Amino acid sequence: HACPQCESSFPSASVLAEHVQTLHQRGPEEKDFRCRSCGKRFPVKQALQRHVLQCMEKAVLPGEQPGGFQCGVCSASFVSECSLEQHREACRRDARFVCKAERCGKRFKSKDTLKKHKQNVHLGSSRKRPACNICNKKFSSSDILMEHRKVHEIFDCQDCDKKFISANQLRRHMITHSEKRPFSCEVCGKSFKRLDQVASHKVIHSVDKPYTCKLCGKGFAHRNVYKNHKKTHSEERPFQCEECKALFRTPFSLQRHHKKYKCDLCDKAFVTPSVLKSHKKTHTGEKEKICPYCGQKFASNGTLRVHIRSHTGERPYQCQYCDKAFSKNDGLKMHIRTHTREKPYQCSECNKAFSQKRGLDEHMRTHTGEKPFQCDV
């Protein structure tokens, strides 16, 4: 049961009703928290924070034309879908003249604009209407048909097997394959690929932590982080890898574990083909990226970026459970397991589990009797 005003979710209709009565049935003067993007007001700061994440998520991408969301009644343009929706409510109240042509129903603020609409769109509707050659649906004009045909277009990602129904969706997705991180947090300097990721990240710098664990008292800014934390108090690991039988507490941990792009020159596997491509340069010896501080060469922008942190001291990967920060994401992942007590690597002989693969490899020698290290003396 979702609240239509602040996007919060509740287990029952009665709890939702109590929430609405407590927080939303108040006068405008009591709603002190306002979204700068669309002007919507909220009674509590947490409701505004949740709304801002969705509002920014729908904002236009860098390079797109501003005003990408247009009102169908008055043609006014807005930078986000949320802003447009706020405008539409007022616009529809003013638009009293409705076009009664078949499958139209558009509203207009004056008789003149309604008349022009009928002349431009519906005049001569008795003649044969243009139809879509894929689904045979008919339309009142060729322009509307051209817009409809976009529904049938499929946009393929060249780096992975994902498909999208619009060029805009594909463009957003392609950012995940790029190594560019144009957006940064002004508080800690951590960089991100998308603006909505910055908004989500900045909540960790806020003193407001609305989600509190009843078992240990820890507070959390994000609901999903809070839910994952609660699982640290349980030994249950219901998610299992079908290939290696490793066990995980969350589906996200299992997803990270799966790496389907495998290197044909070694045993390593990777999440995306672009990372695999960078990895293969370590076999060919190709090193095109040069460190501006010491001149050392690297095979990819990613490895160069990690190396530069040894000069700058930057530690962009911060633990969500404590104040520790790391220069590498792998270091953060291993550290987080000290909080979650997650041990995904399980011995097939005695069921003993380990937090790192290296620990499992060393343990397996107790079963195989292998002793690879020999004293030179």
TrEMBL record:
Species in which this protein is naturally found: Petromyzon marinus
One GO CC term on file: nucleus
Main location: nucleus
One GO term of the biological process aspect: embryonic viscerocranium morphogenesis
GO molecular function, one term: RNA polymerase II transcription regulatory region sequence-specific DNA binding
Keywords in alphabetical order: DNA-binding, Metal-binding, Nucleus, Repeat, Transcription, Transcription regulation, Zinc, Zinc-finger
InterPro entries, alphabetized: Znf_C2H2_sf, Znf_C2H2_type, Znf_PRDM5-like
PANTHER family for this protein: KRAB AND ZINC FINGER DOMAIN-CONTAINING, ZINC FINGER PROTEIN
Superkingdom in the source lineage: Eukaryota
UniProt name for this protein: PR domain containing 5
Residue ranges of every copy of the C2H2-type domain listed in the record: 1-29, 33-66, 97-127, 130-152, 155-182, 183-210, 211-238, 261-288, 289-316, 317-344, 345-372
Keyword set includes Cell cycle: no
Gene3D superfamilies reported for this sequence: Classic Zinc Finger (3.30.160.60)
Subcellular location: Nucleus
TM spans (from-to): none
